[in-house]
Write a structure and sequence with these properties.
This protein has about 325 residues and is an alpha+beta fold. The chain contains three helices and twelve strands; from the N terminus they run H-H-H-E-E-E-E-E-E-E-E-E-E-E-E.
């Protein structure tokens, strides 16, 4: 027999009915959901069509006032975090800017330190180009990269051009001021130049407008830029101070081509016993500051570097 309640209903049917009622209480009816959706859609339409005088404005204001303290509190709570992130980003940017400025400053300082050197070298190249035109000779440009030791008792320099540039011994070396010397030996990439102020150097020269010829001997010293002694073939002629001296020239232009400026007469000495005249010459070239030089080569010489032609153009 099933148990019955006091109204005569079976107990298990009552239990099922109670469960259904509890489920219905916890879940909204479908009609309520539809009503809420319609109400929301109506509010959206009214708010969009009303413009500035929307009937939803009072509700929006109430909601804004209700949530404003919460938003303010959240902003205040997040402010230290946001500020810390901004501080880290700003610090990183400042560090990068500082590194960039330090690098730029170092580059500017380096440029300032080498500005005079670069300017002087550029001027020497320009003067060498002009000299090629003035001498009417093709030149292979080179730089002095070494100076002979004083213990060798010779005055030589090493330049950074050799046989690969079309150079060989007994070629004339000049710069923008005048005669430097002659090549005495070469390698593939370098050459040794005997300076005209060396004690073993002998150069044929012509004096001033008289065109009197003589021989220039180096004094073997670089003091006061180096000095040369001139002995004239015609001992009866006395050169004057200030007369210019140019190269006499050698057979075939080796080791010296003709017409290259050498220096000026500074003083003349006479020897009554030997009845000779000797003139001291101050070279145009400052041998204590040699840098850019040019080696006289035949026109059309094959070279591994640019050649300054006789008209000043590059080939």
């Amino acid at each position: 027999m099933r148990d019955r309640d006091r109204f005569g209903e079976p107990v298990d049917r009552l239990n099922r009915r109670g469960s259904l009622q509890r489920r219905e209480i916890g879940r909204p009816r479908a009609s309520r959901v539809v009503a809420l959706v319609l109400a929301g859609a109506t509010l959206v339409v009214l708010d969009a069509s009303a413009g500035d005088g929307s009937p939803v404005d009072p509700l929006r204001a109430v909601v804004g006032e209700a949530f404003a303290p919460v938003e303010s509190g959240a902003s205040a709570a997040m402010s230290p975090v946001v500020s810390a992130r901004e501080w880290l980003r700003t610090r990183s940017e400042l560090r990068d800017q500082n590194d960039a400025l330090q690098l730029q400053n170092a580059q500017l300082e380096e440029q300032a330190r080498t500005a005079d050197f670069d300017r002087n070298r550029l001027e020497e190249y320009d003067r060498l180009t002009s000299a090629a035109n003035d001498y009417g000779r093709a030149l292979v440009p080179a730089r002095v990269i070494g100076v002979g030791a004083a213990q060798s008792f010779s005055r030589t320099v090493t330049i950074d051009a050799g046989s690969g540039s079309g150079l060989h011994p007994d070629m004339t070396v000049v710069n923008g001021d005048g005669l430097v010397g002659r090549i005495i030996r070469v390698t593939r990439s370098t050459a040794t130049v005997l300076l005209v102020v060396d004690a073993d150097s002998v150069v044929g020269g012509r004096v001033g407008q008289s065109m009197k010829v003589g021989f220039l001997h180096g004094q073997g010293t670089l003091d006061q830029g180096g000095r040369l002694d001139l002995e004239l073939v015609d001992q009866g002629h006395v050169p004057s101070a200030g007369d210019s001296v140019v190269t006499w020239g050698s057979d075939g232009g080796a080791p010296y081509v003709s017409g290259i400026p050498v220096g000026t007469v500074t003083s003349v000495y006479s020897s009554l016993r030997e009845t000779t005249q000797r003139a001291e010459i101050a070279p145009y070239v400052d041998f204590g500051a040699l840098d850019v030089v040019g080696v006289v080569v035949p026109s059309g010489t094959r070279s591994d570097r640019a050649v300054i032609e006789a008209d000043g153009s590059l080939r």
